[in-house]
Amino acid sequence: MSDLIVGQPQPSSHSTDSAMTQEKREKQGEGLLESKIDVCRGLFAFIVANAHVFMVCRSLHGDQLQALPQVVDRFIYLILENGIYWVMGFFVISGYCIQLSVSRQTAAKNFTQKSYLLARVTRVFPLYYVALLFTALIEALVSTSRPTIWPNGLNAQVLLYQVLAIQNLTQTYGCFTSSWSITNELFYYFLYAFLILLTGQNLRWSTWLGMALCIGGSAILQLLYVTVFRVPAILTVGLLLGLGINWFLGAGVALYSTTLLQWGVVRLCSRFWLPLLGCILASRFFGVLPNQLMFLTPGLVFALMLLSFLREDSTQTSKPVSKSWLRLAKILGLASYPTYLFHGPILMLLASLMLRFQWPRDWRLSWAILLFAAVGSGLLLGLLVESPLMAWRAAFLRRLKTPRAPASKKRGLAILSRSRRLVEPTS
Question: Which of 18, 79, 199, 407 lies at a CB distance of 3.0 to 4.6 Å from 205, suitable for a disulfide?
């Protein structure tokens, strides 16, 4: 009875058990949602790699692909060779995850611009520079027997742009072609940091301002481009801002998911996000989807995908999540970024060997070999490189959050310790 607080009602064992069950269910739901996002990230990276595999096959076996029935060749060219749809999914997921992370830190009152920027930089750049060095070595190796695919930007100036991570504003370096989106990601990270600073850590205002800036800026630049200033730089910056709509759309889902899921139409649409994505791809195939909408409509669908995951997790039973599923999700999540960065140079190396030895002669066998290499190398790099890098990063960020004792206090403690040893009797 001495442990009871006088004057305050004590929870019954039933209510305590219910609270513990609810807490366990919430943690389980968070783990399941995270695993679904990891699976999507891995699959999106594999699909982007597959798109580039088809591009390489067209470079090596163009005559065979053109000999296919026209509807099949058109499907391969417009759908399977086009990875842009899935990159929009990366942007939506990125905005969602960053918003959640920042929301937790601001709620705990431990958010700082320094910790935010260091978290972003340590996530992007270590593996990015390793992949860039690998790409430069591969391009040097294949220079005498290089397929015609991705021939641009093979010079020191563009390599410098890649080092500075501004390649999407200029040009990508050869087979490092998928790295264009890294410029976008970094821009959205830094823009969001500035908006958080500008609004005094008001995340709602930061998100709405970011969305308004991306919509308004891209619309103005698009109008300028089609009317008076047909300058590539105008189009490039307009596209940079336009794709940011998808990033801030993901951030908005993180902020307003509870409210959105109260709307019946949103719940209904979230149930059918996959058929809606199929409709977008079909409209692209039949030529009824304008290029501008090709970037935005997938973003809307992937936002619905996240809402679908959240809706499912909010109504799930207490059935435990399979450990095999969680293990698979973790492997796919770890493979995502290495696959995205490294598959281009790996495909280029293998394509150069195929070109040199004139084997295989069937595009389907080339496709199978190249896809296996792209996905397999991504899985291996995820376990052997990305996993230890993420462990190092987590430890580094934890050290930053751990408060350090002032130097004067450390010296005082050291002097006190020595003085105690001097006065203590020896045995």
Answer: 199
